[in-house]
Amino acid sequence: MNVLLQIDRLVKRFGGLVATDSACLDVREGELHALIGPNGAGKTTLIHQLSGALAPTEGRILFNGENVTGLPMHRRARRGLVRSYQITSIFKRLSVHENLAIAVQGREGRSLGMWKPATQDRARVEDAAAVAERVGLGNKLRSAAGELSHGEQRQLEVGLALALRPKLLLLDEPMAGMGPDESERMVDLLLGLRGTTTLLLVEHDMDAVFRIADRISTLVFGKVIASGTPDQIKTHPEVRKAYLGDEWEERAA
């Protein structure tokens, strides 16, 4: 399996604070790779660097064989490196369909003119509707985004990212604030993407992570201390000590 993303000795300093400490990590094409770790471990800071929102102090980010370390966020997105955020970011007054049509329009890098809505282009309309079906919102096309439940808004945000047709999608805590039913729908959505969209997922719901991830990396104090399959991570002594606790060894057994 080809390596799509490679993080090579990445360092991020904020004054005397080392938020990312020579982190090394690779994400293989087609896999669902989870990044876990305690609060304050530097997971979101790492995602910011991968997306281009923050510039690293040292190290390299290689994406699809290209060094993208110095590229701004929009140029990384054009190459297929796309992210979502912890805080839901959607156009709440617009419909689900309009939100997705705007995302499709952004992917194309062109507009229909200042006064013409994105939903007037037939191909764009059909593309947006297909994305809505993919994220489980096919029956909510005409609903205002602000009227959706929290879980549905998170599904829509994943849809906005998918509308850009990413080669690699960075998801930062997509299940944050969800109840059990909403989390289950998100798990199903992510499982449906496996094999067709490469994912790097930051998530604190360990039950979900161990169900859906192909590989898991653990970040502690900005350093990747272990990478492996879910079974390997559950029983890894350093990961248990730093994050999971002995409970996961007992559950694995």
Short description:
By secondary structure, the protein is α/β, with parallel strands linked by helices. Helices cover about 35% and strands about 25% of the residues.
Give the helix proportion (percent range): 25-40%
Number of beta-strand segments? 10
Helix/strand-derived category reads alpha/beta
What's the end-to-end separation, in Å? 30 Å
Domain ABC transporter: 5-246
Protein name: ABC transporter ATP-binding protein
GO molecular function: ATP binding; ATP hydrolysis activity
Organism: Cupriavidus necator
Description:
The chain contains ten helices and ten strands. It has a single domain (3-252), classed as P-loop containing nucleotide triphosphate hydrolases (Rossmann fold, 3-Layer(aba) Sandwich), CATH 3.40.50. The chain has helices at 43-51, 73-78, 96-108, 122-134, 150-162, 180-193, 206-212, 230-234, 237-244, 247-252, and strands spanning 3-14, 17-28, 32-36, 58-63, 66-67, 81-83, 168-172, 198-202, 215-220, 223-228. It is an alpha/beta fold and 253 residues long. A hairpin with a 2-residue loop joins strand 9 (215-220) and strand 10 (223-228). It holds the Pfam family BCA_ABC_TP_C. Keywords: ATP-binding, Cell inner membrane, Cell membrane, Membrane, Nucleotide-binding, Transport. One of its GO terms (molecular function) is ATP binding. This is ABC transporter ATP-binding protein.
